[in-house]
Structures
1.
Amino acid sequence: MAKFPATPSYQGFHAPSRVEADITDLEIEGEVPKDINGAFYRVAPDPQLPPRLGDDIWFNGDGMISMFRFENGRIDFKQRRARTDKFVLEERAGHALFGAYRNPLTDDPSVEGRYRGTANTNVLTYGGQLLALKEDSPALAMDPLTLETKGYTDFQGQVKSPTFTAHPKIDPRTGDMCAFGYAAKGLLTRDMVYYELNEQGKLQREVWFEVPYYCMMHDFGVTEDYAVFHVIPIVSNWERLRAGLPHFGFDTTKEIYLGVLPRKGDARDIRWFRAPNCFASHVMNAFNEGTKVHIDVPMAKGNMFPFFSDVHGEPFDPQKSLSYMTRWTVDMDSRGEAFESMTRLTEVSGEFPRIDERYASAPYRYGFLLSQDFSRPLQLPGRSASGMMINTLARLDHATGTAQTWWSGTTSTIQEPCFIAKPGRSGEGEGYLVAVVNRLLESRSDFLIFDAERLADGPVATAKLELRLRGALHGNWTPAHQLPTAAQAAS
């Protein structure tokens, strides 16, 4: 009989839902703009079975893919499991076979050498396929309409690394997908590989190199001319795994690095810049002005992940975990290794940054962020798995340094937003913002649609879900013209 642990990762709003669902024509408050036509996909960790070791971190749940399909003012909802190798093997066994997060030493011997990925971190369409991603394994291909799992893909044998980033970038000028793999020659190795593939799945570029030390390489930046890799000391080693410690820990004694690789160069052309210890995980955007390279990240003074504790045993510091959008600038023409500057862009604290993707890898003005407004506390327990109290959506204006915000109320929190461009409009930020909102008091979820330029006015439409969507990590929008037709999917 399944019994999940009575721990924060498995209780309350974080409790596993384990529900696959189809809901036709969601009930709507307000009016869904009829020019929104396409699909929004998001993915959440949602374990099918209790953890093998009795407890685990929230990040280790099996991927659950949700699709909100927009057409002519109507929204249909579909939710399916990402049927990874791990999921299928454990489904057959009837119990967990894989152990702690990214620690194969804790697995059942019967699954030695099998992919441990959960496909639970990001999901996007590319080249006619839906890709469900977790950075410790290959990309999992799924059908964009039915959400049926096809299996892991190595892009016709062209992607040699057993790992594939959860944060690929689509170059809006070329349409190419820029991606990388870390631990690319085995667990805990310093090896990395950078890829560019086109929409036909043909490999355009492959560059192998090493990072200064092994760490979680979760995200990166791409500009018109460069790929930019920020190396932050969320580190690991075999001693940690043998001791049964969490895979990663934060090391305050290590410097950070920024690796800048010319997209038309090779490993000999990469430059490594150094800066004092800090924390940064996600990237809002990156761009270059000639040889000056800018990357915008939510930067904190200290560790933001309480579940990956300090390697020296220091207690987690909530104040040092607060992150602020910060622009890091380096000059490829400089002679030294120092950053040119680290400039805070806003006084709004937050994470999960998003942009108008048409301006990806180029100079831009607007960004969107999940924020914490401590002046408006929750009446109910409702922090995210990271410990953040995400109760506010923010629209940042980098030109003025101002922010427009919307607060979700005293009994709700917000999941990562996504920008949808208005058809026929080319101005930056002209579009909609969508986000799942957690209704903590009712233990269910709503799906909200905002005018991205008038965020403070509140949602123009709310799609009601009579079920609870476990907290997602990331998601993306696909316009209708990029989705296959039903006939194409059947062929």
2.
Amino acid sequence: MAVVTDSKAGAAQHLGSSSPSGRLGWVLPSLVLALFALKPLGPVKDPDAYWHVVAGEHLVQTGQFVLDDPFGAAADKVWILNQWVPEVLMHWVHAAYGLPGVAWLLCLGSLLVGVAVYAACGRRSSALVSAVVLAVTFVALSGSLSPRPQLVTFALAAATTSTWILTREDGRARWWLVPLTWLWACSHGMWFIGPVLGGVVVLGMFLERRLSLGEAARLAVVPALSVGVAALTPVGPRLFTSPFQVGGVTGMISEWQPPHLTDPGLAAALLLVVVVVVDQVVRRSEEWTIALLTVVALLLAVTWSRTTGLAAVVLAPLAAMAIQRVTRQAVPDVPRRERVAVLVSGVASLVLAGLVAPAAAASPGIGPNGLDAALDRLPAGTVVCNDQTDGGWLMLRHPGLRPTMDTRVELYTVERIRAYLVFVAGEPGWQDYAVQVGCTYAALPADAPVVAAMRAAGQWTMVEQSGGYLVLELTH
């Protein structure tokens, strides 16, 4: 990419400032970033958020990173706390401010993801182009902006992609990516995306003849070391095998299924793919690095619903470059007023979120909240058959009880999950699951098919009902 000289940058700034988009474009990124910060605000609905808080609390109290599950009644595998940094942070915030604090933390995390994408695009395009790409990326991410450690992956993937593109331009190794990967590996299971992106860029640079074989080998040390330091996290080498715990049950997890063609997130990610591909074809470019990164992003977009937003994050700076080339203008320096607008927007959004969160997120967005009193009366250690969605809620709100299923699917065997699915559907043999896990009480949605089967069997008696849920007791 050509380096913009001071005269060219000045001309671009002058041209931009005299056009309508130039006069108003500088404020658009700040408006989109406000959307990142405020749109996710509301009751905590993600089932995973609750057990992440519990995980952080347990780690602070025990220092255990690999352990047998102390909370559920039916887990079959060890629990590996490989996302401990955000989990401890979530625990601290929850201990201080409750669920409104967790909701505000989501606003902060979402904003940081937006800022990372904006910074990656802003290096390579005007404010208007950056805002457009940022808005499309927001749509792609909208289904994934929840209070979970995956926000760390989104933010660091944006920063890593942008950094490796810089390396492609100047050939300099960024060694600080190695400790960054260590932090990433302590924060989310998809940390390996960073080294993968680095390896892809090094290969692309070699194919573009920007590097000799020896130079490529030396530059490849950065992603190689990044993988190596991951073994030095508190989890140790087991970090490398932990992702495979979920491998056997991915077919039963909705977010590990391919996204539906009508999914707006997929449409947004594919739009970014189209922008990059059209630019490459029109210019008849042989930019192997861009092509390889686009292929990686495309695979992420269409293979799993969970990674569609991640694909958009990787594609964002590439799409910004492509659109900027269409304008046939040099990339202007980011003006001071744009930086100030972004800062003011971010701070104001977080302040507003902090003021609104106590009311907007005072009550959980999931779970049998109307049955808290009834559940509190159950003896400590009581095994409760529950809906999977409410497992984390039970772990956090009623730590003395032992739910039989939650969304930590990597802790359960395929057989256990299948037995649970038979149970909640009320299909023949549902009683076997209740016997296997030893539940004497059940807290379930009133419309769950198994509820009718349990009451018809004459062995379960309703204790209390509220808010579309009920508590049943095994009496025979």
